[in-house]
């Protein structure tokens, strides 16, 4: 389905629309192994490795270890909407953290 994602980082808000396929949806709709496998497939081209993938009820948390950054996410799902927090740590300095909050809602079928 089509989703609208609103992300706020350092006071700057951006809104994007995207279509989520079955693989993307399995990140939240499956068990921890299914979710981690789906996320790993999505990040094959980014050279980011998925670590510490965890599902607790409707909350999914995971870490992406990328060449220059480490990103930690926590997302809570509510059927046709979700919200979350992402924290980026610069791998070279290991000190600068940038936090983002985001929320998404399902708009309907993809165009």
Entry summary:
The chain is α+β, with helices and mostly antiparallel strands and 111 residues long. It has helices spanning 22-29, 32-42; strands at 2-9, 12-19, 49-56, 59-65, 69-77, 81-90, 97-108.
Count of helical stretches: 2
Calculate the mean pLDDT score and round it.
89
Shape: globular
Biggest sheet character:
7 strands, antiparallel
Task: Please compute the radius of gyration using only Cα atoms.
Answer: 14 Å
Give me the side-by-side strand order of the main sheet.
Answer: 2-1-7-6-5-4-3
Question: What percentage of residues falls in helices of 4 or more residues?
Answer: 10-25%
Number of strands: 7
Terminus-to-terminus distance? 9 Å
Strand content: over 45%
Order of helices and strands: EEHHEEEEE
Poorly predicted runs of 5 or more residues: none
User: How would you classify the helix and strand content by structural class?
Assistant: alpha+beta
Keywords:
alpha+beta, 111 residues, 7-stranded antiparallel β-sheet, single chain
Description of the structure:
The mean pLDDT is 89. This protein has helices at residues 22-29, 32-42; strands at 2-9, 12-19, 49-56, 59-65, 69-77, 81-90, 97-108. The chain is built from two helices and seven strands, in the order ββααβββββ. It starts with a strand and ends with a strand. α1 packs antiparallel against α2. It has 111 residues and is of the alpha+beta class.
């Amino acid at each position: 389905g089509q989703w609208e994602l609103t992300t706020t980082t350092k006071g700057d808000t951006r809104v994007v629309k995207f279509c989520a396929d079955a693989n993307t949806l399995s990140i939240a709709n499956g068990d921890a192994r299914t979710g981690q496998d789906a996320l790993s497939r999505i990040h094959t081209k980014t050279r980011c490795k998925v670590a510490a993938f965890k599902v607790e009820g409707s909350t999914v948390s995971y870490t992406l270890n990328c060449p220059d950054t480490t990103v930690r996410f926590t997302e809570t799902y509510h059927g046709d909407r979700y919200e979350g927090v992402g924290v980026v740590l610069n791998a070279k300095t290991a000190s600068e953290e940038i936090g983002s909050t985001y929320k998404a809602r399902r708009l309907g079928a993809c165009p």
